[in-house]
Input
Amino acid sequence: MVSNYEKQYMDNLINIYKYGVKEKNERTGIMTRRIPSSMIMVDLEREFPILLSKKVNWKTALNELLWIYQKQSNRTSELNSHIWDPWTGEDGTIGKSYGYQVGAPVKAKSKEYDNQIQYIIDTLQNDPSSRQAVVDIWEPEELGEMNLVPCCYSSVWNVIDGRLNCMLVQRSADYPVGVPFDTTEHAILVHMIARHLGVRPGILTHVMADSHIYESQIEGVETQIGQYHRAIITSKCLPLLVFDKYAPENFWQIKEEHIKIINYEPMPFIKFDVAI
Output
């Protein structure tokens, strides 16, 4: 048994593996297999998007989520992992990227908001029909001050029929490493903000431009394809996200220990190279 989400992900991964155009990426110096774009849509009321074909370190994803969207930090010492170490500068930050941009104040008409998350929360609380709840962390004037420009750079939020939906837009998609992490991370974010707004989680649409596999990842991809076919046969239940009974409704007060993913019994972890 695998989810509709996993089928979409694996169809995209296999498509890139089989038919992606082989070209060298000049920034990393590594050959890739790439396609122009891909997309995954998940109904978060029906399933939680986390892979069974390989273990995804969802607690690391949750920690990163809180670092970017709740703490709005760019200082890597405030993370419980070392995933951002390669992009950490001498000042201990990743520059004016990710959390730094989320924390930028917003001026909308006659109102001012402390940061972009507060903007979308207040906007949808005051007007659930609004089509202006957008987070944008691609700041052209400050790209040169970012140690890594954002991959997931924009998200659009709306409430329809009492459900919170999110369209996540990604400019560059490392399919074996980044994509599973990013989809799971933003699914948790939708659940957290929906809880704050008092609505149900809705559709997460993950839109990705340059979707690719690095040639150094091919062996791992082949392993994952094999594990996927085994997961179809052996997996007996699908994972679920739950908040514990002590979890606050307020987005700003939710901590890592308040969130659990139950029934998660994935295939073994696969170590993939990450292009720096």
